[in-house]
Every structure is written in structure tokens, then in C-alpha cells.
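Ops channel
N.P.: pipeline sanity check, posting one input/output pair.
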């Protein structure tokens, strides 16, 4: 049940375009969501009260505009990053990494950098293909697939446009 002011919804609330909708009406924040539910055979009722002051957003919604086949510039940067990892190309990697990661590498000795590269090779898939994505010009989300230990994996890659270049800021693989 959704309550806003004196009105109470007689159907479950839903989120549409980042707003709660009840009884077919968009409910503007702030509001209180009240949910009562019976559990088990004890006939107990539990109530949860939540107060929201801002519209809800869908964390899985695309950002900005769709990217062209291959992911455009962000896609090319990510594929280049993966290729540089597997080639062990430190100079190229430094152009595709965020500045703070480049600074961390600068403080390491050659043996540690070699270990870091070996670890990166283990966790970075090969045969990368950018399936799609979106970008608002500052951030890009790429949907990709690749191969790890002979198995196909899919991932969501977050890229940031910083210092005139696209760099990888997060990678989640399944």
C-alpha cells in the first residue's frame, strides 16, 4: 500500500520512469511507502515504512546515447587496453589507465610491475567483442563478451573520459 497525504493506494505500487505509480497516478516525492504483509500461519502482520525524497532511478538503465557497433571510441579504448594487457605492453597500458593507477605503477619496481601484469593477464579475458553500450560523453557503459580459460564470459565495463582519453574504471564479469 502506498500512502501520500490522506490517499492510500489499493493496489501494489510500481516504479515507472524513476517515480512510484499507484492507482495509475504518478506520486511525487516526498511520500511514505507502507507495506503490510501476513507471514506464515501465525497471522502476524509486519509493516515497513520508507520515506523517499527523490525520484528513484534504474541502475541498469542506459546512460546518454547508444554507442555504434564496436562501442565507438570507448569500445576501442577497452579493446586496446585488453590487447595491451595480454601483450605486456606497459607503455600502451599507461595511456589507457586512469592517472592514479599510472602513479601507483610509477612507484613500483620492475619485479612488482611484472607480477601486476601477470595478474592482469589472468583476470582479463581475451577475444573481446563489444556488444553494445551507451555514453553521455563523460561516462560509457560497455556490454562485452570475451574468453577466459576457454569459457565465454560476459561483462559490463565502465569507462570514463578523462584527460582527453577513455580509461577503464570498472569491470564486472560473469
Amino acid at each position: 500500500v502506498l500512502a501520500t497525504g490522506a490517499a492510500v493506494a489499493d493496489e501494489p505500487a510500481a516504479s515507472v520512469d524513476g517515480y512510484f505509480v499507484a492507482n495509475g497516478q504518478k506520486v511525487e516525492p516526498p511520500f511514505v511507502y507502507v507495506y503490510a504483509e501476513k507471514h506464515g500461519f501465525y497471522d502476524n502482520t509486519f509493516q515497513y515504512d520508507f520515506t523517499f525524497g527523490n525520484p528513484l532511478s534504474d541502475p541498469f538503465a542506459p546512460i546518454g546515447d547508444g554507442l555504434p557497433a564496436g562501442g565507438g571510441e570507448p569500445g576501442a579504448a577497452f579493446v586496446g587496453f585488453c590487447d595491451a594487457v595480454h601483450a605486456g605492453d606497459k607503455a600502451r597500458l599507461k595511456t589507457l589507465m586512469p592517472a592514479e593507477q599510472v602513479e601507483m605503477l610509477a612507484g613500483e619496481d620492475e619485479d612488482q610491475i611484472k607480477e601486476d601484469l601477470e595478474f592482469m593477464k589472468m583476470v582479463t579475458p581475451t577475444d573481446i567483442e563489444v556488444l553494445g553500450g551507451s555514453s553521455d560523453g563523460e561516462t560509457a557503459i560497455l556490454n562485452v563478451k570475451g574468453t577466459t580459460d576457454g569459457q565465454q564470459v560476459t561483462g559490463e565495463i565502465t569507462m570514463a573520459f578523462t584527460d582527453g582519453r577513455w580509461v577503464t574504471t570498472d569491470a564486472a564479469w560473469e
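N.P.: looks fine end to end. The helical segments are 72-87, 90-96, 99-106, 110-123.
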